[in-house]
Amino acid sequence: MVDDLLLISPLLIVTVMGLVSLLVGVFAPAGSFKGWLAFLTSFGFLAALGACYMLWHETSAGAAFSSQSFHYSLTLDHFGLALCGVILLGALLATLTAVHYLPAQKSDHAEYYALIAFSALGMMIMVMAADLLTLFVALEVMSISIYILAGFKRDSSFSTESAMKYFILGSFASAILLLGISFTYGATGTISMREIGLAVAGGDAHSELALFGMVMLIVAFGFKIAAAPFHMWTPDVYEGAPASVTGFMAVGVKAAGFGALARLLLTCFGAPEYRDGSAVSWETLIVILAVISMCAGNLMALAQKNLKRMLAYSAIAHTGYLLMALLVVPASSDGEQALNALGGGLVFYLLAYTLANVAAFGVAAAVGARGVEDAGEEAYAGLAGRDPMLAFALTIAMLSLLGIPLTAGFMGKLTLFGELLSSGGGEYLWLVVVAVVNSVVSAYYYLRVVMVAYMQDESAEKPIALLKSAPLRVAVGVAAILTLVFGIMPNKAINASTRAGYSLVHTSNPATYGARVSAAKPAITSTVEPKDVAHR
Amino acid sequence: MQTGNAVESADFFTHAELLPWIVLLPLLGAAINGLFGKRMSKGAVTFFGVGSVVAAFVLSCIEVSRLAELESGALASTLWTWFSSFELHIDIAFSLDQLSAVLLLVVTGVGSLIHIFSIGYMRSDEGYWKYFSYLNLFMFSMLLLILGKNLLVLFVGWEGVGLCSYLLIGFWFKDMPKAEAGQKAFVTNRVGDLAFLIGAFILLFYSQGTLDFHELKQTAASMHTDQPVELTIVCLLFLVGACGKSAQIPLYVWLPDAMAGPTPVSALIHAATMVTAGVYLMVRTNFMFSASETAMTVVAIVGAATALMAATIALVQNDIKKVLAYSTVSQIGFMVAAVGVGGYVAAVFHLMTHAFFKACLFLGAGSVIHALHHEQDIRKMGALKKKLKVTRWSFLISCLAIAGIPLFSGFFSKDEILFTAFTTSHWGADPKMYVFGMLLLAAFCTAFYMFRLYFLTFEGEYRGDKHTWDHAHEETVMNIPLMVLGFLAAAGGLLGLPHFTHAHFLHGWLQPVLGFVKGKAPDGTPLEFIQVGGENAFTYVHDTNTELMLMGLSVLVAAIGILLAWRLYKRPASELPKAPVDAWWHRLLSNKYYVDEFYDATIVRPLRGTANLLHKVVDVGLIDGLLVKGPAKTLGKIGDGLRMFQNGDVQAYATVVVVGMAAALFFIV
Q1: Could you read off the pLDDT of B175-227 as tens digits, one per residue?
Q2: Domain membership flag for residue B599
Q3: pLDDT at B644
Q4: Nearest 5°: CA angle at A333, between A55 and A254?
Q5: What is the Cα Rg of chain A in Å?
Q6: Per-residue pLDDT tens digits for A13-54
């Protein structure tokens, strides 16, 4: 029991940090500088990151929750830990960008850091959740915190409007999610993902109901990860929310959403007849979402002049690329070909995406902090002259999002596309071509940012003072440097990411549905007790 | 198969510890100048900026001499494993074989000279350190491209040079039109890169996880028998990639615009090195191209058509750099056409001589522009031979070389291309005569427009303003590179004397990479073959009489071109012929066949239109317009929170979600 607390230490650390910030909010005088809390919170994130790192090595040695502790509501595997790591890294860097940004926005409240911590907590539980109710509660913990954060600039009607929109539409998505959970429960009689998977694969489930549930779950998560056509909220909220929040939600929500969706689809609906069966399949659905997302995102981004809004459409486009990772069937995951494992693309791509976005939104926070919240072109025109370091970091971020070699973004695209090609026997070549064409189109608007930052003169009528903030510069600089490091020496990270993807196969049941090649209905052993299978 | 390859690779390559330093030195120079250059003295900036490239050249010479001593195989050095996932295993590794050796010496050698030239050209510029930092960064990428042991390292360099050229065009000028020219270059290049990437992905699919050139040979051989169509597709995609980088039809439009950059940059990037990367790629993957007859035919046609088209456009240009730009496009067309008819040696040979004389021409143009206070219009020049002696002579030599006058370098290389086009058969088909014809016509145009340029610039009467004339002068530091390049432009052809002399050094040097097999025709004519899968892909006929005959023909054509230019343009200012600006052909040529307009109408505007339409319909329309009564987007106009609930905005979004979900449910259930 006590050991199990050690196993959730990352979650505990983050929770404690959130509570501390809340307490400070109660006791500290209203007008005082709260930036030091950011350092405290970041330290907490760093400690949680360290805990994740330790658990990563423990996990391979066989650490697992004992059955009574959380009653199978959490899964401890490399996949969850890796995504926790990505989320924590994003949270850590995004928190640092807020230190001087919030006072400049006249919204320096201690609750900010508490909310960041709680939403990070929700994200981490999301990627570790093993049953649908835990998943739902975690998602709400995350979402509600983010709703508040999006409207954190209380005196700005723009910010509150976006928060309100996000809240209403988010509640709508939550309703769909709950409906999906209910359908799935109705079809299988359980909320445990693993048992749903067993029931679905064994043909014990009411297939119509299960399908309804599956589609609704995909739609609900499609909303969270901003997949078109469920993306409508994204540009408004990204633009309206404070830049430091947008940076955090752009990376955190996406990582958590993709983690949960991947686990859900592969564990619950990994059975071949649900995955790529002739009558019904979520693979087809994912392909459609991917194509619409990347095309719509890229095309709309072309017309954007505002950095934050452009990044919102770019986020939609990247959702499209990332969705492709769900289609990858690794050729071998520890010697067996298994449908319910992921390749190395997803986690690494999310890592690259996180770093680039943190850097980009960090710059957006720095240029848009004074005066109105605005990251239009005039805000960062001639940035190179005013602050070469920020301009350089922005360039790296744009190149990484665009996928230029020697940046992490290139390696992410390469791994993802390469894996998809080799996994499906070439059936998805067309999809890879669509994705590559899209990434070429994206050159136009990403490079435009670089061009404006370097080649346009500072606008004369509306000179905007840069936010002077050492922590922000550190965060942006670290993100840019890591982007280069993971582009030049990505091997370790890709290996870890591959391992994370493979680990899904163990946490769902490897014996249940195995090789895609022998797609015959697998034997189901309903007598197996939950604790016997790899429920770590 | 894979382990077998690996063992063979290990035997094939000899370790070379200096190789990475050739690549890293320029990077080091770029880093030092980029980080500390602002605070360093000009001397220090020069030391690191120029010194790193010269040092790389010295190291290159050492390594190439080591390569020459090897009995077989090539030099290689692996830095670290870039990544390995699944079966894919990619190293950051460099290799130096006979082909990359030629390119390496040209790039570092010509690069060094251009760096030295830049000392004088950029002396008074406040961005001196920045300039050298970018230039070194470019050298780094270019060397990565040349020395990359596998397709992916090459691709890194490939993207890198594109990016650096974009930076060098754009960073220099602080106005948007020029920056947009840079962006046009980059986006056009990306179209080529896209094709390249897709080709590489397809290749990866068949090559079992390797992209090493050495191992791709087996892949190409097996694809030739099993997947000939796929191989052709890969080759064509690589061709499109090469078209982007090497400015060939249909992607050549960016190069003339790229002339906005400083002239030494044009010399280095847009004449001698980067733009030949496409040709290098095709020669590097010759084993794939040789196997595909369709792809080769397309390559030959693209090359020859570009050579002719660009040469005709160059006839009517009046900007000294634009003439040279179109000339570059045209000359690279020659190289691509050479690849297309199987003349890999000729292509590399012409690549080399072109680097010499075109760099010399560009630097000469730079010297002229520098002397005349950034005047680029040749109608306002003339008689400059009195002021710029070294420039004039080196320019003249290079003009003779590019026109193909015997004993100058361009004569030998261009002649070999024409000879190959005339005699070589691919898979037993007849030689491609139409390629020969188009190239010969292009050669005629080349001689004419180059000497039109020469006579208008250096001979006749001066037509500009007097003040500029009085101040026009040359600089020693700029003269030295001109003299060296002028010498190379004159003598570089000796590396590839005609075949009947049996002293074609380059041919023997490249043999290990290209794999010629000697043979004889029944009547005793010496033949050579390139074999693919045991069959003769190319048959080269080395017939002395034909060679001499063709030589005479091309000299005749060049001489006519030069004489015509002499008659028309070596005159006093008042007697110069007026350009027939109203003639249909003149308008067609000076508007560059309306290709830019065509692209604008068919690609740029529809794409931008779609984006704007989406923007209008979805962004503006849905949010601000149709459904919204009170405009919610514009900051100042937002009312209280309540109004937001009524404006239909959120409902519209929710409706889309529901419709999406309904569609998904309908689709799946």
Answers
A1: 666 667 777 777 788 888 888 888 888 887 777 777 888 888 878 877 877 87
A2: yes
A3: 40
A4: 60
A5: 22
A6: 999 999 998 888 888 887 788 888 889 999 999 999 999 998
Considering CB atoms only, which of A176, A215, A296 is closest to B668?
Answer: A215
Q: Is B36 at the interface with chain A, CB within 8 A?
A: no
Domain ranges, residue B645: 595-668
Out of B160, B653, B664, whose CB is closest to A219? B664
Instruction: Output the CA torsion A402→A407→A408→A410 (10° steps).
Output: 50
User: Which residues have C-beta within 8 Å of that of residue A105, sequence separation ≥ 6?
Assistant: A153, A242, A369, A373
Calculate how close chain B gets to A214, using CA atoms only, in Å: 9
Instruction: Find the mean pLDDT for residues A489-511.
Output: 76
Is A343 in the B-facing interface, judged by CB distances under 8 Å?
Answer: yes
- CB of A373 closer than 8 Å to CB of A159: yes
Judged by CB atoms closer than 8 Å, whether chains meet at B205 and A436 is answered as: no
B544/A contact by beta carbon, under 8 A = no
- Spatial separation of the C-alpha atoms in residues A458 and A441, rounded to whole Å: 27
User: How many other CB atoms are there within 10 angstroms of residue B591's CB atom?
Assistant: 13
In a domain, B68, yes or no: no
Rounded-to-integer distance, Cα B569 and Cα B158, Å: 41
Q: Does the CA dihedral A361-A363-A365-A371 come out positive or negative?
A: negative
Q: Are A504 and A373 in contact (CB under 8 A)?
A: no
Tell me the per-residue pLDDT of A433-492, one tens digit each, with 9 for 90 and over. 899 888 888 888 888 888 888 777 766 655 567 788 889 999 999 999 999 999 888 888
Question: B89 at the A interface (CB within 8 A)?
Answer: no
Q: What is the ipTM of this complex?
A: 0.74
For residues A99 and A35, the answer to whether their CB atoms sit within 8 Å is yes
Res B173 pLDDT > 70: no
Count of domains forming chain B: 1
Which ranges of A99-228 does DSSP label H, i.e. alpha helix?
101-104, 111-128, 132-150, 157-188, 193-202, 207-224
Residue in A212, A229, A455 closest to B656 by CB? A229
Q: CB-based burial of residue B127 (10 Å sphere; 0-12 exposed, 13-18 middle, 19+ buried)?
A: middle
pLDDT for residue A182:
93
Q: How many CB atoms lie within 10 A of CB B386?
A: 11
Q: What percent of chain A has pLDDT over 90?
A: 34
Tokens of residue A489, six digits: 């020496």
Q: Exposed (0-12), middle (13-18) or buried (19+): which is B608, by Cβ within 10 Å?
A: middle
Residue B559 contacts A, CB cutoff 8 Å: no
User: Does residue B624 lie within any of the structural domains?
Assistant: yes
Which amino acid makes up residue B96? L
In this complex, do B644 and A164 lie within 8 Å of one another by their Cβ atoms?
yes
CA B411: distance to chain centroid?
21
Q: Are B82 and B66 in contact (CB under 8 A)?
A: no
b/e burial code for range A45-84 (CB count within 10 A of at least 16 → b)? bebbbebbeebbeebeeebbbeeebbebbbbbbbbbbbbb
Which one is predicted more confidently, B493 or A141? A141
Dist. CA A14–CA B373, nearest whole Å:
65
CA B85, CA A491: separation in Å to the nearest integer?
8
Residues whose CB is less than 8 angstroms from the CB of residue B226 and which lie 6 or more positions away in sequence, other chains included? none
Could you identify the residue written with the tokens 């390995």? B84
Q: φ, ψ for residue B292 (rounded to 5)?
A: -115, 110
List CB contacts of A187: < 8 A, sequence separation 6 or more. Answer: A199, A200, A205, A206, A207, A208, A209, A210, A212, A213
Note whether A443 contacts B88, CB cutoff 8 Å: no
Q: Which of B623, B640, B669 sits opposite A211 (nearest CB)?
A: B669
Listed residue (B286, B279, B285, B282) closest to B332, CA to CA: B279
Residue B619, domain member (yes or no)? yes
At residue A481's C-alpha, the angle toward residues A480 and A483, to 5°, is 65
